[in-house]
Amino acid sequence: MAGLRQPGMDHDLYPYAPLPGRGALRWPGDAGLAFAPVLYLEHWELLNTPGTKRVAGAQGPWGNLSPDWRSFTYRDYGNRIGIWRVLEALAARGLRATVALGSAAAERHPAVVEAIVAAGHEVAAHPSHATRLHASHMSEEEERAAIAAAIASVERSTGTRPRGWIAQDFSESTHTPRLVAEAGLEWLADWPNDEQPYLLNTTPGIVSIPVMAELDDAQMMWAKLIPGWEWPPLVGEAAARLTADAAGGAGRCLLLGLHPWLVGQPHRIGHLEQALDAVLAVKPWCATLSEIAAAAKPQISSG
């Protein structure tokens, strides 16, 4: 394979852009940090669907079973019980989340969708099932149709067309950014490669809002087995450092991924409340992802 690798980036979606060479990025109210809770409302399939892919290891220690009763019921807890605790914690702090809404969950849990809309949360397009990754096993035509179906599902269930796209478990194919842009969406939040939004080289151009994957509740407490009581101070330390690094107009953002089946458990909801309070202590600009994209786009260039 010698000779195939070339210097520079491995793709042309954006150029390498070192932070010291960027211009100022300012948030409303001169806040150093833009904070957005990202809430996942998803359905986990009981049976494996031929031709689809699941994220490796997502089922936990039980293996990839079919029917997968353990994983199904574990995740179903989030849509029956955990979601209400999470919504209550957000409401108590006046926070609006951006909700990644899969069509399968929207069809099965209309009462949850109704509560989300009534509380003023933003809803973003999201793959249909938590067990179906968008990746390069899909043809371009299949993925284009799936993105269109996801957008239509949000519009049908909420009455509002979504403005952005949130992947399943940070997964994308080589076509996803272009297809999302062609579908008329304004942003995507799939990549943890930065601390500031930037423009992608798509037509039309869309904003990539970087996800703080390291702090995602499932990444921390499920994949890395960080004890729940250690999560809030880590979130708080990140928020404080990002705010300090933003001094002088280099605004940062913190997207905090939340899964109701995990953080909505009775022994973890207090940790979520502590984590949210730790972020709010640095006085961030609390916003939806569409608001972050709209504020950033006039100030940023590709990369």
Structural features, described:
The longest helix has 24 residues, at 69-92. This protein has 303 residues and is an alpha/beta fold. The chain has helices spanning 69-92, 103-108, 110-118, 140-158, 176-182, 217-223, 231-245, 260-263, 269-280, 289-296, and strands at 33-41, 98-101, 122-125, 164-165, 187-188, 198-199, 207-208, 252-258, 285-286. The strands form two sheets. Strands 1, 2, 3, 8 and 9 form a five-stranded parallel beta sheet that branches. It has a four-stranded mixed beta sheet with strand order 4-5-7-6, sandwiched between helices. Helix content is 37%, strand content 11%. The chain contains ten helices and nine strands. The model has no long low-confidence stretch (mean pLDDT 90).
Concise synopsis of the structure shown:
The chain is of the alpha/beta class and 303 residues long. The protein contains ten helices and nine strands. The strands form two sheets. Strands 1, 2, 3, 8 and 9 form a five-stranded parallel β-sheet that branches. A four-stranded mixed β-sheet has the order 4-5-7-6, with helices on both faces.
